[in-house]
Amino acid sequence: MTTSPTTSTSAAERARAHSPRQLAAASIGNLVEWYDWYAYSFLAVYFATQVFPESESGLTALLNTFAIFAVGFFFRPIGGLLMGAVADRFGRKPALTATILLMGAGSLLIAVLPTYASVGILSPILLVLARVIQGLSVGGEFAAATTFLVESAPPKRRGFFSSFQYVSTTAGQLIASGLAAYLASTLTESSMNSWGWRVPFFVGAGLSLVGLAIRAGAHETLESVDDLKADASQRPGIFDALKHHPRESLLIVGITIAGTIAYYTWTTYLPTYAQTYADVSKSDALTAGTIALFFFAALQPIMGILSDRIGRKPLLITFAAFFVVATVPLLRLLDTSMSRLLLVQCIGMVFLAMYTSIAAAVNAETIPSRVRAAGIGFPYSLSVALFGGTAPYMGTWFKSQGWGEAFPIYISALCLISLLVYVFAVKETAHEPLP
Q1: How far is 7 from 20, CA to CA, in rounded Å?
Q2: Number of domains in the chain
Q3: The domain containing residue 70 runs over which residues?
Q4: Mean pLDDT of successive 10-residue segments in the chain (435 residues)?
Q5: Residue 225 falls within a domain, yes or no?
Q6: Whole-model pTM?
Q7: Is 387 within a domain?
Q8: Which of the two ends of the chain, N or C, has the fewest CB atoms closer than 10 A to its terminal CB?
Q9: Ramachandran bin of 311, using left for φ above 0, alpha for ψ from -120 to 50, beta for the remaining angles
Q10: Terminal Cα distance for the chain, rounded
């Protein structure tokens, strides 16, 4: 593909000259996206029995609800591919606009979801539809926002800029967790089960409009966007990344496996895991999770800056090695106390931040600019769907089968796969120009 030097230079300079604004546009929009996505996980224990028949036990209804949670993840690769192709063919901004609109629509649908008692089987069907919409959105969001953030970064600061992907993700998760904890502590159990769980989804739908307005002022980072608009024949095909960069696509899968299973276990599922396996109360589990997320968000820029100085590989290797060795003993430490849960979460998050802070940079540094968004979006989202989105379901399923001790071993085994990838296949890219 031929690009005009003037167009290429001006696009890069515009984005980097307004890097604080770029950071805000990506981060605030991403916060809203992930707030909507995570509200489902935190509130599943309350609305599970509203969406499924009363004849089902609490554990069975929760298992079904987490199965629908996983369905959303399986539409993330499609979203990553489709929205990534939009970002590569028409620019990063159009893709970011589309993803936040989809997320708001999915959140609103859950907020007004009728119960099983009122509409029968239509209730879980509508819940599946809402999660499909959100899955398409969040798959595309990671692809477009990751690319947008790293391309906006000044030289030698890609790790720092990359860290804001999970600063904003964690902030959205934190707001969702905090609001859920507040409602759980102020409303009665019956009020929370009947209508209180709907409030965060209404809030999420409103926040999507705020994020949309903020993103409108961002600068495009796709350097060849003017050429692509002028000549449609130069636009990359939807499968070009997989066709021309199969090794890099497979590498992103290997990089992501450990990160996604550790992330969704430690930041999303652990409060529910503690309730199910260690009899921690709902309110204590949500409160501990909220405090731990504050700590986790603060770690991101620190680790991002560290990676810009010493490289990406040392952090990735340390992260994966820790979870291979420490997952089983850490999860065995859980008991009925909130303080023990908080300790386990915070220890794990120190090492998890070594991955999350640089995931965007590592992925962007692996795939060339022409197909970067789709090239990241599909393999990353596929890995998350297979190994991250299924984590709550697998943990709950192991419990239902009486194999509770198998879940921590399952996590360690997946982390071992990525550890081997980090050691033998990942090249150091921190001090190299973007491909």
Answers
A1: 22
A2: 1
A3: 12-218+238-424
A4: 43 60 85 86 82 70 77 87 93 92 93 91 91 91 90 89 93 86 88 92 92 86 78 84 94 97 90 86 84 93 97 98 97 92 96 97 94 94 88 84 89 98 96 87
A5: no
A6: 0.85
A7: yes
A8: N
A9: left
A10: 14
